[in-house]
């Protein structure tokens, strides 16, 4: 696969899964822009990438979880790259804590902001300027309630509907929109060594290759909005 000449944005590209996706898109020859609220994370991302690919990484300090911040990031991307061929939203993050009956309101608000509102803002900012593919990543908590991670299940299920609604409203727009639901934990260089990973769990490389395939212009145009990965995962029994 070859993405040379393509210009992609990975929102959340300094995070665990986003880094893997960024690495793969660069490996395939694309130019990739990654925003982050924390310049240090952008520096760490750059230094973790193969040297040969670093000149095609563009980093933008900014907050895509803020209504004004995301527009600033979007405008810098469009000004710098000229166009956007694809966006990957790898936003949010796992959380475990008390049951919903005891979740403190600020915690609830932060988790909904991180796992749902940031997706809304990125999609709202980028979909109108995109001539290509928009991929939002989601997880297994969207499909079944995960006790002690309740706000994540709620936000992830709502993310599915957010994307369905954008897709319905943009049916005639020149964009292809997909939700890639990653149904196992993702093992990357960030995985804590004290928690042994199971052999069937996906690696960052596998997830990134899958996402790159979905972004590719030759990905089937009639593919469904929601793509489960792995497709044969038993949602009810799968590890969280
Ligand atoms: N990690 C896994 O094992 C796994 C498994 C299955 C599915 N997934 C899915 O993969 C996606 C990413 O997860 P992850 O584990 O890579 O998360 P992560 O390491 O915590 O990274 C998430 C990224 O989201 C950004 N973000 C979070 N809240 C934000 C906010 N309020 N405003 C702006 N940016 C915000 C952060 O950007 P900054 O750089 O600005 O902080 C961060 O880079 C999620 O959709 C998750 O469901 C992950």
How would a textbook summarize the main sheet? 7 strands, parallel
Alpha carbon gap, first and last residue: 31 Å
SS summary, helix count: 6
Q: In one word, what is the shape?
A: globular
Named CATH architecture: 3-Layer(aba) Sandwich
SS-based structural class? alpha/beta
In short:
By secondary structure, the chain is α/β, with parallel strands linked by helices.
Describe this structure in words.
The protein has 240 residues and is α/β, with parallel strands linked by helices. It has a single domain, classed as 3-Layer(aba) Sandwich (Rossmann fold). Helix content is 38%, strand content 18%. The chain contains six helices and nine strands. It has helices spanning 16-27, 39-48, 67-81, 105-126, 150-169, 204-215, and strands spanning 7-11, 31-36, 57-61, 86-89, 133-139, 176-182, 186-187, 202-203, 226-229. The strands form two sheets. Strands 3-2-1-4-5-6-9 form a seven-stranded parallel beta sheet, sandwiched between helices. Strand 5 (133-139), helix 5 (150-169) and strand 6 form a beta-alpha-beta unit. Helix 1 (16-27) packs across helix 6 (204-215), helix 3 packs parallel to helix 4 and helix 4 (105-126) runs parallel beside helix 5. NADP nicotinamide-adenine-dinucleotide phosphate is lined by residues 12, 14-18, 36-38, 41, 63-65, 90-94, 113-114, 118, 137-139, 182, 185-186.
